[in-house]
Amino acid sequence: MMVQALPPQLPAFEAPAPERSVATQQELRVAAALTEARVNVDSSFRGASIVLYGAVFNPTDRPADVVVVVRGPDAPLRLVKKSRTLGVWLNSRPVLFEGAPGFYMTASTRPLGDIADFGQLRRLGVGVDHLRIDAPQEASTVTRYGVRDVVISRLGEDYLDWRRAVIRLREAAALYDTDPHGVQFVDKGLFRAEVDLPTVAPTGQYFAEVWLFQDGAPLSVSNLTLTVEKVGIERDVYEFAQTRPWIYGILCVMLATFTGWAASRIFRRN
Known about the structure:
single chain, 270 residues, alpha+beta, Immunoglobulin-like, 2 domains, 6-stranded mixed β-sheet, 5-stranded mixed β-sheet, 5 helices, 17 strands, 40% strand, globular
């Protein structure tokens, strides 16, 4: 399968998150922060590593676990499956997910299955196996740029296969990651975890949740936001391509044509 990112039509609704960490009203609580709240992407961007650190306020002697979940902005995602027809590998009709997170990472003090049961993790959407990928109840067909895409249904027979394909491809691109020992306690009550953004990390607003579990139950959560944005000429070109795609396409064709003509003239003289 191949994956192709689609230009977003409308900005996806994102639930507001506080700029600072907010803990629930529990005696046992957690607070966290990021070393950087903004990452600038330019032509020299080769990825970024951000440290998430925090403290657990635990007045009891019972141990507690920390789980960090970082989710990037949602965007439409097109999948193409290759099938063999008469000995030739051809692309099938594209399948479209209405929204899938462009980045998803979980880090924890130990494996998630040892921290909470399946039901708790599924309810909270914690872990790549419980990741919420938007899909309607009924399949439909949409046409974009002259291409007919099948919008995948979460009730369809092939939904789980396509969902696994999304996760597998994103993991191969280092956009999805699960680290069962990514949260480390450096001192009593103090912990840290690293958020590694690859070069292909999408721009937009990221939401981080820091969950505190004890005896299999979530008792406290802290919410953080991280902004990844393009800067400089890269941002100008990106915004121009998104707002005026037809003009951008025509200019690219003209530039490619001129470059090919100029190269042929140079080599002809030599």
